[in-house]
Amino acid sequence: MTIKAQVLADFVVELASEPNQQKRESWMLHVDRSSTSSAGGARILLQGPGGVEIEIAAELDFPTTNNKAEYESRIIGLEMALEAGVMQLDIYTDSQLVAMQIEGSDETREWLMMRYLRKVRDLIS
Q1: Domains of the chain: which residue ranges?
Q2: 64 by DSSP, 3-state: which?
Q3: What is the pLDDT of residue 12?
Q4: Helical (H) or strand (E) element with 66
Q5: SS3 (DSSP) at 69
Q6: Are strands 88-92 and 53-60 parallel, antiparallel or unpaired?
Q7: Angstrom distance (rounded) from CA 62 to CA 73
Q8: Rounded to whole angstroms, how far apart are CA atoms 24 and 49?
Q9: Class of domain 5-94
Q10: Could you tell me if 72 and 86 are in contact, meaning their C-beta atoms sit under 8 angstroms apart?
Q11: Is the pLDDT score of 6 beyond 60?
């Protein structure tokens, strides 16, 4: 389900005003992506306590790879979680390479991927 940006922003602001106890409980972020030589897509699902779910689909209207689309998905999801005031977040993905790069057990030498990696690490710190 795709949610218009303003509706999502309003919901996240409303969610951020919820009591702190709910934000301290563990939330889950599920990210998925697709890519082609001309465009890509991202699906982000943020799940919180009490059955709270925020799901969005984003179109990446630029040529991308699976790894770039994975980073884009994570960045969108992490920004949503931060905007909502989430303090505890578990991230689920099917990209082992990107997960290993973020954890530091693998590295990248490609300039753009290094920028994505830096952005994600900044968001999770």
Answers
A1: 5-94
A2: coil
A3: 61
A4: helix 66-83
A5: helix
A6: unpaired
A7: 14
A8: 10
A9: alpha beta
A10: no
A11: no
